[in-house]
Amino acid sequence: MFGSSHCATRSTSPALLALPAALALVLTGCGDSASDDEQAAPSSSADGAFPVTVTGADGELTLEEQPENIVSMSPSSTEMLFAIGAGDQVEAVDDNSNYPEDAPTTDLSAFTPNAEAIAEYAPDLVVLSNDQNGIVDALDALSIPTLLLPAAETLDDTYEQLETLGDATGHAEEADEVISDVQDRIAAAVESVSTDVEGMSVYHELGPELYSATSDTFIGSIYSMFGLENIADGAPDAAGGYPQLSAEYIAGQAPELIVLADTVCCEQSAETVAQRPAFGTLPAVQEGRILEADDDIASRWGPRIADFAESVAAALQG
Amino acid sequence: MTTTARGGAARTAVAVPRARRRPGLALGGAFLALVLAMLAGVWVGALPLPPGAVVVTLLDRLLSPLGIGVPGALEGTQAAVLLELRLPRVLLASLVGAGLAISGAAYQGVFRNPLADPYLLGAAAGAGLGATLVIAYSPVQSVGPVGIVPLAAFAGALVGVGCALVLGTAAGGSHSPTLLLAGIAVAAFLAAAQTLVQQQNTEDLREIYGWLLGQLGSSQWSDIVLVLPYLGVAGLVLLLCGRALDVLAVGDDEASSLGVHPGRLRLVVILAASLVTAAAVAVSGLIGFVGLVVPHIVRKLVGGSHARVLPMSLLVGGAFLVLADLVARVVLAPAELPIGVVTAFIGAPFFAGLLWVGARRR
C-alpha cells in the first residue's frame, strides 16, 4: 500500500519495448544514421541533443525531440523536473504534486491513473513512479512515451533519476549541477555535526500508529550517513522496511532523537509526543531533541532531500 | 420483560444436556481464563519486565489508595510502560473482546442466524465511513483529550444501524430477513461511499488502512473511559434479555403467549448490541471474527441457552482478544501485527476445526 508498493516494475519483454523505438528510428532517422547512433547512446548526449535514449524501469525510451508537453505523475519527479529547469516543459502534474508552487497541478490521480485523462494533455512524455492499474501498457497502446522512475532506495537512485530526467528533457548539465549541489549540501550537513552523535539512537515516525522506517529505506539511509542508530532496525525483516513498532519498544529503546514525518497528515508535534503515555520519560523528549519534519520533504526522493539532511543536522546540533 | 420471561426459560432449559447444566462452573472457569490471559498480557511485551516486579507493582498501585505501600515496585520507564501502556491496552482488549462477543451472541440470537456478527446492519461500514471522513477532511484531530476519529466512528456506526433499522422496519416490520437485507443494502452503500472518499484522499490511505485493520497499540486510559459506560449499561441490558431470547427461540407466537413482546425485545436487543459494537469499534477500529466465532465456541461449551451464552461470551471474548493482542505483539516483535489480522488467523482455523469435530460427532 505504501513505500514498498513503489517498487512495482513492469514485466514487458525488452523486445516489445524496443519495437516502437526502432520503428521511430526507421521512420525519422534514416538520413544521418552515423551521428544518430553516437548521440542515442545514453549519457553521452549534451544539452539539447536529440534524439536521446534513456532507461527507466519500463525499459529503454528513445525521444526524437525535446519533450515540450510533459505530464509528471509523481511528486518526486515533479520536484526533480522543476529543479533541473525543465519546469516550463511540464504541462500537467498529478494531484499529489504540491511542490514547487508553480507546478501545474491537476486532478489527475497517481493512485488510480487513467490513461484517457492523461492523454487529454497530449503529452510527449509521461513520468511515473508507479505502474498502477497497468497504466504503462495503456499509455503504450496510445503511443505515449513513458518513463517509469520508481521510489528510490538509495541516494544514488535519486542522482540517477535526476540524470535520466536531465537527459530526457534536454537539461543534462543543469541536472549535473543539481546533483553536485545536493551532494555538497548533504556532505556539509553531515560534516557540520560533531562525531559525538555517532551511535545516537533515532526514531523516525511515519504516523501516530507508530509506523517507522528502517536503515534499508531511502530515508533511513540519511540517518546512516550521520552514524545514527535506527531503532526500527530491531524489527525483523518480515516486517518490511516500514514496520509498525510497539509503543513500549520505542519507550524501551529510549531514542535520543525523534523525527516526526507526520506533522502535516496527523498534526503530531513535540507537544503531542510528550503527552503520549510513557513517552515523557524518553531522552529525546526530555532534551527537546524532536525534529518536526515536513511529511512531504521526508518522504520524497527529490532534491529537497538536502533540506531534510540539513534539518537533521540542525536538530543534532541543537 | 425479564421477570415474565423467566418461567419460559426454565421450560426450554429442560432440553439442555446434563453435562451442560453447571453454568456456575463454566462461568468460573471462563473468569479464571480471563484473569490468566490478562496477567499474561501485562507480563509479555517488547520491553522485558520481571514477572515478580509486575505483580508487585500492580499490587502496589491497587493498595496505595488504602495507604499501603508494597516494596519492590517498578519505577521510571519500566513503570510507565507497565502502567501507562500495557495495563490500559490489556484492559481495553478485554473490554472490546467482551463487547464484540456479547453483541455477536445477541445478534445471532435475535436474528436466529448463526452467521450474524456485531458488524451486521451496517455498523462496520458506518464506522468506517465516519472514521474515513474525519481522517480525510477534519481540520482538527481531537476535541480536548478525546480523539475525534473514535467519536466519528461511533456516530457512523449508529447512523449505519439506524438507517438499516428504519429501512428494514419500513419495508417489513421487524421480520428479521427483511432487516438483514436492509442491513446489507445500507452496508454496501456506506462501504462504497467510504471507498469514494478514500480514492479522493489517497494521501490519508495509510492512516485509514491502519484504522480499518483494527488497532489496540495506541490504547489509553481515556479510551477505556470512552467504552466502559456503553459496555456497562448496554451489556447489562443484554444479559437481562438472555432468558427472553430463549423464549423467542421457540417462536414469536409462543413467546407472545408467554408474555414476551417479540418486536419490542428485538428492538431493545438490536439497539443494545449495536451500541456496544459502536463503542468497541470507536476505540479499536474494525476487529473481525471475535463476535462471530466466540459465541459458537461458547455454545459448544455450555449449550444454546442465551441466559448462559451471553455472560460466557462476555468472559471468553475478553480472554480471546487479550490473547490475540498478545500474539499480535509477539509474532513480529518489536514490530506489531494489526490485531484484526491475528483474530482472523487464529479464529478461522479454530472455528473450522470446531465445525469439523462437530460434523464427525454427528
Explain what the structure shows.
The complex is a heterodimer of chains A (318) and B (362). Chain A is an alpha/beta fold. Chain A folds into 2 domains: 6-181, Rossmann fold (3-Layer(aba) Sandwich); 194-317, 3-Layer(aba) Sandwich (Rossmann fold). In chain A, 37% of the residues lie in helices and 12% in strands. Chain A is built from 12 helices and 10 strands. Chain A has helices at 14-28, 33-40, 75-83, 115-119, 135-141, 155-169, 172-191, 218-225, 247-253, 270-275, 283-286, 305-317, and strands at 52-56, 59-63, 70-72, 90-93, 125-128, 146-148, 201-205, 229-230, 257-260, 290-292. The longest helix of chain A is centred in the middle third of the chain and has 20 residues, at 172-191. The two termini of chain A are 36 Å apart. The model of chain A is unreliable at 1-46 (pLDDT under 50). In chain B, 76% of the residues lie in helices and 1% in strands. A two-stranded antiparallel sheet of chain B has the order 1-2. Chain B has one domain: Orthogonal Bundle (ABC transporter involved in vitamin B12 uptake, BtuC). Chain B has 14 helices and 2 strands. Chain B is an all-alpha fold and 362 residues long. Chain B is globular.
What brief labels describe this structure?
heterodimer; A: 318 residues; alpha/beta; Rossmann fold; 2 domains; four-stranded parallel beta sheet; 12 helices; 37% helix; elongated; B: 362 residues; mainly alpha; ABC transporter involved in vitamin B12 uptake, BtuC; two-stranded antiparallel sheet; 14 helices; 76% helix
